[in-house]
Amino acid sequence: MKKNQDTSALTFGEFFRRKRINLGFTLRSFCERYSYDPGNISRMERNILSPSIDSEKLAGYATALKIPRDSEEWTTFFDLAHAAKGRIPEDIQNNPKLLSVLPLFFRTARGEKLSKDKIKQLVAQLNT
Q: What is the rounded distance in angstroms from the CA atom of residue 100 to the CA atom of residue 105?
């Protein structure tokens, strides 16, 4: 993916497909090169099949897609996979500070307004 390309509205499948195409691979050539099943990759790219959230499996895909380890793009790739499964990423699950603010985030995502006091509380929790 080109630098500064917005990936915020992409699904995991769309992100995967764009990365593969930007590398110059057809679906078949990508799958042959990395020994993946083309039917499964196709279904995953079309969001018919949810991706695995197994860290090793995702790391294999990310490596094949030339996503630099520990980069923002790597994190986005893993976050999109977890979102596709309806799961919270492990790094957030293992961070009590982030877990404590999830209810506020969920309310905000649903369009519920937060009071100024709640916003201040959220900022304070994130900054401690």
A: 10
Residue type at 122? L
**Interatomic CA distance for residues 18 and 38, integer angstroms:** 16
Q: Are residues 62 and 74 in contact, defined by beta-carbon separation less than 8 angstroms?
A: yes
pLDDT tens for the chain, 128 residues: list them: 444 455 567 999 999 999 999 999 999 999 999 999 999 999 999 999 999 999 999 999 999 999 999 999 999 999 999 999 999 998 889 999 888 888 878 888 888 777 788 777 777 776 76
Sequence letter at residue 46: R
Q: Domain residues of the chain, as ranges?
A: 12-87, 95-127
| 3/30 Cα distance (integer angstroms) | 22
CATH placement of domain 12-87? 1.10.260.40
Closest CA to 13 of 27, 2, 24: 27
Predicted TM-score (pTM) of this structure: 0.77
Q: Which among 98, 96, 101, 97 has a CA at the least distance from the CA of 119?
A: 101
> What DSSP element (H or E) covers 14?
helix 12-22
